[in-house]
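Below sits my pick:
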Amino acid sequence: MYFRKLFIILISSLLLAGCATSGTVTDDDIKTQKALDVSTALKFVDVPVPSGFKMITAQSFTFENDVLRVGILKYKGRSSGDQVVNFFKNQMPLYNWRFTNMLEYGRRILNFEREDQNCIIVIEPQGMSTFVTITVAPKSGRATTYKSVARED
């Protein structure tokens, strides 16, 4: 009986220890993450969104005419924050956006620009989900210079 209890405790300890991880993400983990694809349904044709992210329409707003475009688009998906950052850093230049900087403090804020517009992307991991807020607006003093630009292939 004593050996049986000891055996059960030993096996349980090994199983529990085998399931534990350090909880840290290494550079190798980031490199092996699958790259995200571009969604086929884009609100603005020149601002990519990761595939699998759904727009939260109640928290989104857009206005666009032949001379002006502004919008705040909020999306929810299940990719990691690192995957989403890498997606935008890789995809935005293909749509003629220039990366200017990134701020990190729990959430990540990526800033992109063009001659006539700014695009601010906020990435917020929350539990099992990641929220992405994309803000597009004209640069100061250039509210009437909007030019539609298609993706370069």
The longest strand covers residues 117-126. The two ends are 71 Å apart (CA to CA). Helices lie at 2-19, 27-32, 81-91.
